[in-house]
Write a structure and sequence with these properties.
CATH class: Mainly Alpha
Number of domains: 1
Number of strands: 0
Strand content: under 5%
Radius of gyration: 11 Å
Structural class: mainly alpha
Largest sheet: none
CATH superfamily: ACP-like
CATH topology: Non-ribosomal Peptide Synthetase Peptidyl Carrier Protein, Chain A
Length: 81
């Protein structure tokens, strides 16, 4: 899966959790939770959904590293290789 495909999966999964999000306005370098106003439960549901969709383990210890779309792409991209 290339970066563009992975970003599409991230956005699609995010829209499943928060359908009101305007995907075109998302910035890769800004904290995602503040851009889309996700509470901690929504964020957890988002990470769990990514785990299920991509079959990638995301240990709770790594959650703090996953702040921006760029962070998520790098982290998940590394696990998918």
């Amino acid at each position: 899966m290339d970066e563009k495909e992975l970003r599409a999966v991230l956005i699609e999964t995010l829209l499943d959790i928060a359908p009101e999000v305007e995907a075109a306005r998302l910035r890769d370098d800004k904290p995602l939770r503040s851009q889309v106003d996700l509470d901690s439960m929504d964020w957890l549901n988002f990470l769990i959904a990514l785990h299920r969709k991509l079959a990638v383990e995301i240990p709770e210890a790594d959650y703090a590293r996953l702040v921006t779309l760029k962070d998520l792409q790098a982290y998940l991209g590394g696990k998918l290789r």
